[in-house]
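Sanity check

After download, print the first record. It should look like this:
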Amino acid sequence: MISYSCEATVMFCDIRNFTMLFEKEDPIKAISFANEVLAVLGNEVEKNNGVVDRFTGDGFLAHFGVDGPSLNHAEKACRSVIDMRNCLTQINSKRYLKTENVLNIGMGIHSGDVAVGEITSGKITQKTILGDTVNTASRIESLTKFFTVDTLISESTKNHLVEEWMLQKMPLKKLKGIERNVQTYWLLPMN
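Expected structure tokens:
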């Protein structure tokens, strides 16, 4: 059994209104759509040395810096956001021409310590990450809906950034399951 901890950057990505888009459609169409969109977005994570840990139906959990030491895991996560935004623009252009609803995504990014391990159940063994950093990234992604922005990063991720990034400091906000208020930053579209 693999088990260790490391510092990494975690990203949650969610397709907005996925259920509404497919509530009256054949479920096979929803799977095909998720495959097309999530595969394209996941490829951008992988191009930036990230790993898609698992798909969540209408999104995914990804991490940077887990599969080998990386001093710039936060930079790689932010670069993948830029690339994912560009891909989404192309996807939406095609959808618009077919008079289909355009897509929006929400992304939450947080840096910190994660536990890496294998979970085994019967015939399935899955390597995954767990811990407060993962939970916080998920909560930050949920906060993108409240602020109506596509990507929020935590203060911890901001402090890991070496290059200059255009960020908008957001009001402090309490996250579900976290006692203290959390400072987040919108990763501005002009990056």
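If your output differs, re-run the checksum step. Summary of this record's structure: The longest helix spans residues 73-97.
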